[in-house]
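forwarding from the other thread:

> can someone predict this with NAP?

sure thing
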Amino acid sequence: MVATLEQRDFPVDQLKLLASTRGAGTKIEFKGKEYTVEVMTENSFAGMDIGLFSPGGSVSEKFAPIAGKAGCVVIDNTSAFRMDPQVPLVVPEVNAHAIARYGTKNIIANPNCSTIQMVVALKPIHDVARIKRVVVSTYQAVSGTGKRAVKELEDQVLAIYGNKEVTKTGLPPPDRLQLSSSH
Ligand SMILES: NC(=O)c1ccc[n+]([C@@H]2O[C@H](COP(=O)([O-])OP(=O)(O)OC[C@H]3O[C@@H](n4cnc5c(N)ncnc54)[C@H](OP(=O)(O)O)[C@@H]3O)[C@@H](O)[C@H]2O)c1
C-alpha cells in the first residue's frame, strides 16, 4: 500500500503507519523519509482523513468503526463489512458511484481479491450483453491469509526438502489453503 501511494504520487500530508505490537517499531521509507510503525490504538485516528485497513477481519471489525467515528474514512480490505448493508462494497472500475453511500459508517469495503479482478473483466461484457450467471472455482493463494501464512509455507517447504519435521500453527493447513474451491 505504501509503495502504491508513492508510485501514484498520492497527495499525503501526514502518514501514520500502524500495526500490532509485533510490527511496531519497524522502519518504512516513504518518499525518501523514514517512518516508524506505531501500535494501533483507539486514539490513532484523530485528524486522519483516510485509513487503509488490512489487519484481518476481527481487528477491522473492532477498529474500523472507531476510526470512522473519529472522521477517518476507512477503506477496508477484509471481509468484516462486505455484507453490511450500510457499507458500500466497491470496485472503483465497476461501481465507483456506490462510494457516495460511505458516510453512514465512514467505511468502504472491497470484495475478495479473486472477485475484484473478475468483475473488472466482466463489467464491460455485462454492460453490452447482460450476464445472468457466472460459475467460478477459485484456488485461493496462501498469501490471502497474510504474511504469517506465507512464512509458514516457506518454513514447511524448507522442512520437507531438508527432511525435517514439518511444524504447523493454527493457520489453515497447506492442502486447504492451496486447494480449497468455492463457487
Ligand atoms: N480484498 C482483498 O483483495 C484482499 C487481499 C488480500 C488480503 N485481504 C484480507 O486482508 C487481511 C489481511 O491480509 P494481508 O495479506 O494484508 O495480511 P498481512 O500481510 O499479515 O498484514 C496484516 C497487517 O495487519 C497488522 N495487524 C494484525 N493484527 C493487528 C492488530 N491487532 N492491530 C494492528 N495491526 C494489526 C499486521 O501487523 P503486525 O506486523 O503487527 O502483525 C500487518 O501489518 C485479511 O483479512 C485478508 O483476508 C483482502
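Helices lie at 2-7, 57-69, 92-95, 113-129, 147-161, 174-179. thats all i got for now
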